[in-house]
Structures are given as structure tokens and as C-alpha cells.
Write a structure and sequence with these properties.
heterodimer; A: alpha+beta; OB fold (Dihydrolipoamide Acetyltransferase, E2P); 5-stranded mixed beta barrel; 3 helices; 7 strands; B: alpha+beta; 4 domains; 6-stranded antiparallel beta sheet; 4-stranded antiparallel beta sheet; about 10% strand; globular
């Protein structure tokens, strides 16, 4: 029994160490995800936490100012002014109308200061063939076992 | 022709359902004929799914753009090898690949054991067929790859239509690794189904003896090997294609592939406790169950988009099917364990902390902790949304904080564990075995410290890496010296002889050595450097010992993409060393731009250069240069791991020698000159691990 309890003590030390490490890592890197409409309801500390916000880039709002790229994100009629201050060039998919995910903090002047921007082009990858704007109109996609026999 | 694929897929589904029904009936009624018929149906699934896969590939190669899947993922000017790989470019095809690889495994598992273990195989067949039925349900009724493009004509009648050209393959996937990475990873994911089937089958059938655990271990090693290769190829793809200078971002999809790998690793170690000492039976069977469930979970995370990921391959409701299946698997596992728990009673107890057993216990504890942390961090956005209604994600600092100490502790155990004796190790033996490897490690650490090596984790990693390497080499050396002295052979051939006599032990050491190389490669991360600069022709950028001169910018075009290319000359100490050509490609069919990174790789460091785009202010090209030390060690370590696993799967030579009757007259003549008959007899007395 003695060996068993020694093993238990060793395990407990290891597990406790890991839990405290996990807690520290968690508090350092937790990022809240908010929608633009939720932002106006936030106040106090929760407004100045690190967060991610997604929305569509409003057409014609992308402008380059010294040290930053400014644009407006919009979602369900609500707008958010964003300044991108990161050092990487913006992704190619970042253009008017693209879906973008920004990560950073709210500034006191109600501008969102983004450290990172990810963007997804609306017509990418998994889009059904009919949805890509530049393609010829193929009609609708039938994508089920039932419809297959129609094509034989 | 168009209907053949979907028809054989439907037949495969029926065959799998029949294999379950007839299999269960055969077990219950003890009818051999039914069992045989179920077995044949199980093998027929493989043939039918193969036919379906062949059909889909045929549509890709014949540019059949009336097939929705082909139209969405290929185009005419796509090179043929990417047309081949386009099979798994999307949701439906990926799931079909899953099913096909699973059915391949199932076929071989059944075929190899067709005349063996008559009390076990019917159960195994039913479990395999059940898993296949789930995936074939998805393939047939939820995400069929054989959907046709159709539209209503003027009279309102639906007609099949075809595109003139397809939409092309996602450019991110147009990279050589993408031809091989998904099949490798899926061979890992699907491969863990076979050990699961044997474990669950043995439990359900209360199969006597430990034979099933040997079978399970071998199949787990195969799946584990593929999973390792798949993970590393994925990391290499991310490194070479995504252009952010790293290879691992703790992305949900990456984590998903790591989870079953971790539990699989834990099982491969703790299974030895069951084989040698009859311990940990409950633990082992649950490790196998968990590994399989994590494979399903991983597939779900990859395919359903439940957790958003930069890979963002798919967004669909298919997740519900996986949740249902996972719940069902979990219930079946719990129920069969509860019903047969007395079958898994342990034979022995832990004797001492300084023993092989306790090193395996700590190894398992720590691996499970890593698995739990990664799982927790990956699913945290989903969990937090459920519990507090707020989506909270955790980033790399969380994963690194927990997993780096775990990894270093594991590295320590890699060196310590194999040298500890079973049951109990004396203090003298500890001193004898560890004194000089540990001394070597500490000496290396001191030298590194003197040379200005200050990162604490990398320093520990270096010390432990040297320590583990020295223990491994001393193990080979000690064993080989005994053989060399006995047989009069040289040390090198004695190492080969030693390895072949106990492939499992020495193959395991080779795998450990490969892991050390990977660890050293990862330990280079704190020394990464990068710099980003707008560059005109004739300008220079300096990073580390290199200065990079921008010589030219030009455009290249072909049917598939237009590309902007920088021509850079790299100087080192004033001497011209090489030319590098980072590119940005604009893919015509999909209208997407991707970067082509230029990497100059050497064992010491990678020079990694990205053409990051044009500056928004003045239109000048932006070059982002990274200097990443030791990255190549990771890929090389991966190759060593694969070689080691291959070695460990080989049968022992010693067993083959023992099969020959000692009295056979010509035996001595046929032996190679270096092996004396006396030595050959003497070696039978040697112990193994």
C-alpha cells in the first residue's frame, strides 16, 4: 500500500502543477467572441478585454492612414470602426464585402484596435457551384442519393 | 456509367448492414455458415467501396463536370496528380476516402485472420461492419459525392446540366504534400478502428488469454505510425504553404489529429504492463476505446466546422450525425465493460516507485493530462458557450504553458523508463545505468550556457535530449558488445544482429531517438527571427548571417495561375550563396491568391522567405524573411520514427532460428561464416526485454 500512496502523492503533485499552469495560460490567452451588436451592451472591464469580432467589410470604407488600415465592419445593420495596427500585410481575401474576423481590444474612443485580421472570401472553397458570381449559371445543385438516379 | 458509383456505394451499405445482422445471428445461433457469410459480406464492402472510389476518380480524370463534386473541385487545366488528389478536396470525397480506407483495413483484418481465432473474429467482424455502416450511411444519404448538377428547363422539367469547366481545386491544396497528407492522416484515424474492434470483440466474447492484446498492439502500431506521418506532413504543409513561418498553431484541426495520437502512444506503452505483468487491463481497454472515440471526434471537428478553424474546411450540419454516433459508441463501450468487468481483473500490484511499471504509469498519467488539456482547450469555445453563453477561445499560450512541461517530463521518462527493471530497480543499478548519460547531458547544458544559450525550456530540452540519446546508444552498445565478443563479429554488424533479435525493444529505441530529434527541432523555436521590409530592385535586407539582395520582379503565367515572382540573391559573409524565388500565385479558376514560400533548408537553420504582397501605400513589394533554426530536425526525426516503427513490426530473428531443429546436419554449414554454431546456441539463453 505504501508504494501506491507514494505514487498517488507524486501524481497529485504533477496534476496540481499542470492545473495551475493551465490556469495561468488560460487567463493570459482567453479571448472573448462578441458580435457587433453585443459590443454596445458591454461596459467596464468586459469592454476592454481581448476579443474577437466578426462581420463584413463595408464596401468603400477601407482606407490607409499612416501606421494603420482603417475600415468599417458591419453586421446586422450595426457598424464598428476598426483600425488595423498589426505588422503583417492584410490577407488577399481582405477586400470590400469580405467576411472578416478581427482580434484585438476596444479603444476608449470607441474604435476597435485590431492586432490580427483574418478574412474569408465569400465565394471560396466549399461554395456550391451555383453561388460563385463569375461562373456560368448551372442551375441548382442536387446533392442527395435520391436525385442520383435521375442522371443515369 | 454515371450511376455505377452511387449504385456500388449503396450496395456496400447493404453489405455492411447484412454483415452486422448475419454476424450477430451467427454468434447467437452458433451457426458457422452464417458467420462465414457475414465475413464474406464484410470483405465485399471493401470491393464495392473501391469500385465507388474508382468511379469518382474516373469522373475527375474525364472532366465530368455534370458531377457536382467534380465541378466544385477540379478544372480542365489542373495537373493530373491534383485531379487524383481532388477526390479528398471536399466534404463528400473526404468522407468517402475515410470509408474506403476503413474498408481496406477491415478487409485485411478479416482476411489475415480468416482461419484464426474462430471465437473472436465474428465479434470483430460485427464491430468493423457497424463502424462502416455509420460511414456508409453518411456517404449514401447525407453527403453523397455522386450528386449531379441539374436545372429546370423552360417546361419546368429537371435536366442534368454540365459546366463547361470546373471551379478548380482550392489552391491551398495544390501542393505535393496534399496528395499524400490526407490519406496518411486518414490511414491513422481509420486504422485505430481495428484495435478498437479487436478490443471490443474480445471483451464482448470474453475471449480467453492475452492473444488479442498482441494483435491489438500490432494494429495500433500501424495506425500510430500513419497518424504520426500524417501529423508531421500536415505540419510541413502548413509550414511550406501557409506562409506564416511556423508549422503548428494549436488550431482545432491540428489538435484533433493529435488527440488520438496521444492516447495511442499511451496505449502502446501501458500495453506492455499487461503483456509482462498482467496489470492495467481495464485501463488498456479504455485507452483503446478512448482512442477510437477521439478519432471519431477528430473527424467530426475536421468535417463539421463546429469549432471554427483557420483550416475552415467545412461548415455543415453533419456534426449531429457524429455526435449521435459518438454517444452510441460510448454507451456500447460502457455497457460491454460493465457486463464483462470481471474479465479484466488485474494479476499484479505495483511493487516499487523505481520500477518500469511506475515509469509507465507516470508516462500514461502525463500523456492523458496532455490529451485532456488539448481537448479542453480545443472544445472550450463550444463548452463555454453552453455553460455561460459566452464564446471564449484560448490561444497558443494556454497550450504551450501546459504541454511544454509535459513534453519535457515525457522526454525524461523516455530516457529513464527503458533502463529501469521490472518490479524494482536497485540504487546501484540506477547509478550504473544513468551516471554517464546524465553527466553527458549536464555537460552539454553547461557548454550551451557558456555559449550564451539562455532559454530555459530549450536548455532543459537540450540536456534531456543528450541524456536520452546517450542512454539509447549505451543500450545498443552494451548489447552489441556482448554479441560481438561472443560471435567474434564487428560492432556494427553486432548492432544489426542485436536489433533483429529483439525488434520490438530496439525498434522502440529507434522511435525514441526519432522523438528526441523532433524535440530538438521544436526547441529551436525560441531562437526564430523574422523581419519584414518593402524592397525595390537593388535593395538589401539583412537577417542573421544573411543579406538578401532584391534583383528582379517578374510575372509568370500558365493555364492554372498567374504568378508574381521576386528574384532574390542571398549573400553570406559577402559571398553569393544562392538564389531564391518567392512567389504569389493568382489561381484563375478559383480567383484566389496564394503565396509560394521559398525555403532554403539546412540542418542548422531554414531561411524562409515570403513574398507578402505589395505595400498598400506605394505599391512596392513586401518581403518577409524568417530565420528558423533546426526545423529540418523535425522532418528528419519523423523519418526516424517511421523507420523505428517499421523495425518494431518485424518479427524477431531469434524466433526463426529456434524453429530449426538443432540436430539438422546441414545447419552449421548454412550459417553465415561470422556466426559460430556455439554462438547461435548460446544466444538462445539470452533474455529479451
Amino acid at each position: 500500500m505504501k508504494v501506491r500512496s507514494k505514487f498517488m502523492v507524486g501524481s497529485a503533485i504533477i496534476v496540481l502543477t499542470l492545473i495551475s499552469l493551465a490556469y495561468v495560460g488560460f487567463t493570459q490567452s482567453k479571448t472573448y467572441y462578441h458580435t457587433i451588436s453585443e459590443l454596445s451592451a458591454l461596459h467596464g472591464t468586459s469592454l476592454h478585454q481581448r476579443m474577437r469580432v466578426s462581420g463584413n467589410v463595408r464596401s468603400g470604407t477601407i482606407s490607409h492612414v499612416p501606421g494603420a488600415v482603417e475600415f468599417v465592419l458591419t453586421e446586422q445593420g450595426k457598424d464598428l470602426n476598426v483600425s488595423y495596427v498589426g505588422r503583417d500585410p492584410l490577407p488577399d481575401t481582405f477586400k470590400d464585402g469580405a467576411q472578416a474576423l478581427v482580434e484585438g481590444k476596444m479603444r476608449s474612443d470607441n474604435r476597435f484596435e485590431a492586432q490580427q485580421v483574418q478574412a474569408k472570401c465569400a465565394s471560396k472553397y466549399e461554395a456550391a457551384p451555383g453561388q460563385t458570381p463569375e461562373s456560368p449559371q448551372p442551375g441548382q445543385t442536387s446533392n442527395g442519393a435520391g436525385a442520383q438516379s435521375a442522371g443515369s | 456509367m454515371d450511376i455505377l458509383g452511387s449504385f456500388s456505394l449503396l450496395l456496400a451499405f447493404l453489405a455492411a448492414v447484412y454483415a452486422i445482422g448475419a454476424g450477430i445471428a451467427g454468434i447467437v445461433a452458433r451457426k458457422t455458415l452464417l458467420t462465414k457469410s457475414a465475413r464474406n459480406a464484410g470483405m465485399a464492402v471493401f470491393v464495392l467501396v473501391t469500385l465507388a472510389v474508382a468511379c469518382l476518380e474516373y469522373y475527375f480524370f474525364t472532366d465530368n463536370f455534370s458531377m457536382a463534386y467534380v465541378a466544385a473541385h477540379s478544372n480542365r487545366s489542373l495537373p493530373f496528380y491534383y485531379k487524383f488528389a481532388a477526390l479528398w478536396a471536399g466534404q463528400e470525397g473526404s468522407l468517402l476516402l475515410w470509408t474506403w480506407l476503413l474498408s481496406t483495413y477491415a478487409f485485411f483484418a478479416i482476411f489475415i485472420n480468416r482461419n484464426k481465432h474462430p471465437e473472436l473474429m465474428p465479434y470483430v467482424g460485427v464491430v468493423l461492419a457497424s463502424v462502416q455502416t455509420f460511414f456508409l450511411t453518411l456517404n449514401n444519404f447525407v453527403a453523397s459525392p455522386f450528386g449531379l448538377l441539374a436545372g429546370a428547363d423552360s417546361a419546368g422539367v429537371m435536366r442534368v446540366s454540365a459546366l463547361a469547366d470546373g471551379h478548380g481545386l482550392n489552391p491551398l491544396l495544390q501542393y505535393p504534400e496534399m496528395v499524400i497528407h490526407p490519406p496518411m492522416l486518414y490511414l491513422g484515424y481509420t486504422g485505430f478502428t481495428v484495435p478498437f474492434a479487436f478490443a471490443l470483440g474480445a471483451l464482448l466474447g470474453r475471449y480467453p488469454g492475452e492473444k488479442w492484446i498482441h494483435i491489438t498492439r500490432r494494429w495500433t502500431m500501424i495506425a500510430w505510425c500513419f497518424q504520426s506521418v500524417g501529423i508531421l506532413l500536415g505540419a510541413h504543409w502548413a509550414y511550406a504553404v501557409l506562409g506564416w513561418g511556423g508549422y503548428w498553431a494549436w488550431d482545432p484541426v491540428e489538435n484533433a489529429s493529435l488527440l488520438p495520437w496521444i492516447t495511442g502512444t499511451a496505449f502502446l506503452h501501458s500495453v506492455m504492463m499487461q503483456e509482462k505483468r498482467g496489470m492495467m487491463k481495464v485501463w488498456n481497454i479504455w485507452l483503446v476505446f478512448t482512442t477510437f472515440m477521439l478519432c471519431i471526434l477528430g473527424t467530426m471537428l475536421t468535417r463539421s466546422g463546429i469549432v471554427s478553424s483557420v483550416h475552415a474546411f467545412a461548415q455543415s450540419s453533419i456534426g449531429n450525425w457524429f455526435v449521435g454516433f459518438l454517444a452510441l459508441v460510448f454507451i456500447v463501450c460502457c455497457a460491454s465493460y460493465w457486463k464483462n468487468r470481471d474479465y479484466l481483473r488485474s494479476d499484479n500490484q505495483l511493487d516499487s516507485l523505481a520500477s518500469r511499471e511506475s515509469s509507465f504509469l507516470f508516462n500514461n498519467l502525463i500523456l492523458l493530462a496532455a490529451c485532456f488539456a488539448v481537448l479542453w482547450g480545443t472544445l472550450f469555445p463550444v463548452l463555454s458557450e453552453w455553460v455561460v453563453g459566452n464564446k471564449i477561445s484560448v490561444g497558443p499560450p494556454f497550450f504551450n504553458k501546459v504541454n511544454i512541461p509535459i513534453a519535457l517530463f515525457l522526454l525524461l521518462l523516455t530516457g529513464v523508463g527503458p533502463l529501469l527493471a521490472w518490479r524494482k530497480t536497485s540504487f546501484d543499478a540506477l547509478k550504473r545505468n544513468f551516471a554517464w548519460p546524465l553527466g553527458g547531458g549536464v555537460a552539454a547544458g553547461i557548454v550551451a550556457l557558456v555559449f550564451g544559450f539562455r532559454d530555459i525550456y530549450s536548455l532543459i530540452c537540450l540536456i534531456l535530449g543528450v541524456f536520452v540519446t546517450l542512454t539509447i546508444f549505451s543500450e545498443f552498445f552494451r548489447g552489441a558488445r556482448v554479441i560481438a565478443a561472443r560471435d567474434g563479429s564487428n560492432l556494427v554488424s553486432a548492432v544489426g544482429e542485436l536489433t533483429m533479435r529483439n525488434t520490438r525493444r530496439y525498434g522502440g529505441y529507434v522511435v525514441h531517438f526519432g522523438m528526441v530529434l523532433i524535440f530538438i527541432g521544436i526547441a529551436g523555436v525560441p531562437f526564430n527571427k523574422d523581419i519584414q521590409k518593402e524592397m525595390a530592385i537593388g535593395q538589401t535586407l539583412t537577417i542573421g548571417p544573411y543579406s538578401i539582395l532584391c534583383q528582379n520582379f517578374d510575372r509568370v503565367t500558365n493555364g492554372n495561375y498567374d504568378s508574381e515572382r521576386a528574384t532574390l540573391e542571398v549573400f553570406r559573409n559577402g559571398k553569393s550563396e544562392m538564389m531564391l524565388y518567392p512567389e504569389r500565385r493568382f489561381f484563375l479558376a478559383s480567383q484566389v491568391t496564394e503565396t509560394m514560400v521559398a525555403v532554403q533548408s539546412s540542418p542548422l537553420r531554414d531561411l524562409y522567405i515570403v513574398y507578402a504582397g505589395r505595400s498598400p501605400e506605394n505599391g512596392q513589394p513586401v518581403i518577409h524573411a524568417y530565420l528558423n533554426p533546426l526545423v529540418k530536425w523535425i522532418w528528419f526525426g519523423g523519418i526516424v520514427v517511421v523507420l523505428g516503427t517499421g523495425l518494431a513490426l518485424l518479427p524477431n530473428r531469434r524466433a526463426a532460428l529456434l524453429l530449426r531443429p538443432v540436430s539438422e546436419p546441414s545447419w552449421g554449414d548454412r550459417l553465415p561464416a561470422r556466426v559460430s554454431p556455439a554462438g547461435a546456441i548460446a544466444r538462445r539463453g539470452e533474455g529479451n526485454d
